[in-house]
Hints:
Elements lengths: L1 E7 L5 H11 L11 E9 L2 E10 L2 E9 L2 H35 L31 E2 L1 H10 L4 E6 L5 E6 L5 E4 L4
Parallel strand pairs: 1-2, 5-6
Antiparallel strand pairs: 2-3, 3-4, 6-7, 7-8
Helix pairs in contact: 1-2
Amino acid sequence: MQTSVTFINLDSSETLKAYACEKLDRFDKYLENPARASVVLTVEKFRHIADINISADGFVVNGHEETADMYSAIDMALDKLEKQIKKNKEKFKKRRSVASKSKTSRYEDADMTAPGDVDEGAGPRIARIKNIEYKPMDVDEAVLQMNLINDSFLVFTNAQTEEVNVLYRLKDGNYGLIQPRS
């Protein structure tokens, strides 16, 4: 792990730097790609502050802790980071397994499972994939198209901004427009 240690209002100490680097090396078992760690150790009056940021594998985790002892501040911040890394890795594994399942059974505009194949308590999943073609048009033209079709939404390219927009029908009969923020 590539580590940078910064000292603020504190004399740079090789023992503190070595301690922080040694403790950060335990995260290598969780991270697949090279990681970068930034450690900022600060002393303000009687407070010892450890602020540690790790960026690796597509996510960033931050740990901030204030105590009366610098070593305990580092330990507590690293404990917080360890929990965050484990949580992020678990989320990534879940997403990865769901994505691999959907790649193996991809149907266009059809149910993915047979009626008797439903897992109880499995949670929501993609039941249908629908490919659409969207063309450039004004918002007024999109509203006219929505009146002609029986769907609850319409995806189109806004002719003025050249960005993808979504027009959807509200329960009260009016329309909503989703457009990207500039």
